[in-house]
Description:
The complex is a heterodimer of chains A (215) and B (257).
Chain A: H1 4-44, H2 48-63, H3 66-79, H4 86-112, H5 115-123, H6 128-158, H7 170-181, H8 184-213
Helix pairs in contact in A: 1-2, 1-4, 1-6, 1-7, 1-8, 2-4, 3-4, 4-6, 5-6, 6-8, 7-8
Chain B: E1 7-16, E2 19-29, E3 34-38, H1 45-52, E4 60-65, E5 68-69, E6 72-74, E7 77-78, H2 81-88, E8 91-94, H3 106-116, H4 122-135, H5 151-163, E9 169-173, H6 181-196, E10 200-204, H7 208-214, E11 217-222, E12 225-230, H8 232-237, H9 242-255
Parallel strand pairs in B: 3-10, 3-11, 8-9, 9-10
Antiparallel strand pairs in B: 1-2, 1-4, 4-5, 6-7, 11-12
The site of adenosine-5'-triphosphate has 11 residues of chain B, from strand 2 and helix 1.
Amino acid sequence: xxxxxxxxxxxxxxxxxxxxxxxxxxxxxxxxxxxxxxxxxxxxxxxxxxxxxxxxxxxxxxxxxxxxxxxxxxxxxxxxxxxxxxxxxxxxxxxxxxxxxxxxxxxxxxxxxxxxxxxxxxxxxxxxxxxxxxxxxxxxxxxxxxxxxxxxxxxxxxxxxxxxxxxxxxxxxxxxxxxxxxxxxxxxxxxxxxxxxxxxxxxxxxxxxxxxxxx
Amino acid sequence: xxxxxxxxxxxxxxxxxxxxxxxxxxxxxxxxxxxxxxxxxxxxxxxxxxxxxxxxxxxxxxxxxxxxxxxxxxxxxxxxxxxxxxxxxxxxxxxxxxxxxxxxxxxxxxxxxxxxxxxxxxxxxxxxxxxxxxxxxxxxxxxxxxxxxxxxxxxxxxxxxxxxxxxxxxxxxxxxxxxxxxxxxxxxxxxxxxxxxxxxxxxxxxxxxxxxxxxxxxxxxxxxxxxxxxxxxxxxxxxxxxxxxxxxxxxxxxxxx
Lengths: 215, 257
Ligand SMILES: Nc1ncnc2c1ncn2[C@@H]1O[C@H](COP(=O)(O)OP(=O)(O)OP(=O)(O)O)[C@@H](O)[C@H]1O
Ligand SMILES: [Mg+2]
């Protein structure tokens, strides 16, 4: 029999664990945005070496599963003599992984803009920095918002993988909970509900932002 | 009368890899004169026009605006970005596809260059932008985004955006080619006014009527060559070159019914 008591009871510890899920996802996407922007700039730069580096960065990170990246990163740190908390390792790995996708999201949005718009700006004597900040980026941000929110949703789900390095986020917490209650079904359904709730909120946020920038 | 620039092109060559898009172009444009460029598709009209403000880099020869070389300090020595921007400030350009910035209103489109390039205060820029838009007949459309304007209106905003910078030379690349026929007139009439005010203008166009009535000289291009530059009458009505004759014959056939 499905035990409603266990089901509802699980929400307390799982919601508490959700703070790690959210923290890792949000910090991860923040870091991913910073690195991704730099990688995208390198990718679009006139310097072949930088472009090459960025291309390799993207294809490597997209080609290796996040779980493997996490493990490699986590076990490399002690080898090179770095003792960082698991949380930091997790955020950095998630951020680096996201940077590859975010760089491609930017690149796609920028490529979607008609080149004539930048030309018109150049033709009246605008500096490259103004062309970027006034003409290209505001539009690229609007264009890529849906994809960025989508990436954040993916990260929330992917953050379950950091349980392997011992962080007590939703998935790990539900495993522990399932072990103590002997009621895995109830606990995992509760976990599913929490993930769903978070991601529905994010999707709503995405629609709101899209609507607001589409005036 | 506005202050107007002269343009001198000497032996200008331009390659896209192996393909030669411009061949030894020589062209002189006196201050305040209107030059129309005609010719078949792919003949290099846009390329020539874009070399004048160095939006396209020419490989050899000289392009001089009021005697000053644009793009290079000396042969093979590129001009600094800063100096190039300085020169571009006084050269306006209008594109076939308008190239307005869709996230800004008409007025913001015009004000942007004044703020970023001419370093005006926002209030001053907004005031000047409004003036420029009034001049092209868009007093009541200033707060519209481009998507809320007709093609003809968008192109007039683009002209206002260029004019607000107080250029001494205006380049037009097929400014009416993307417009529905009934909207062509409003754009040509703005250009006609500009010509009568003494602006130096270089216009790539398929509007032979405009070329015949407004241009001081007409240049015909084919396969990267400037085949002939002469008075509108001599190019459009009494062409001697067989290539020009054949081009005009095709044009007349297509436009008669
Ligand atoms: N970026 C480019 N790379 C390679 N070839 C190019 C490039 N731009 C133009 N060309 C070529 O140079 C030639 C001249 O092009 P251009 O755009 O100046 O012609 P055009 O006379 O303006 O034609 P249209 O009337 O179709 O606008 C064409 O053959 C074109 O294919
Ligand atoms: Mg062209």
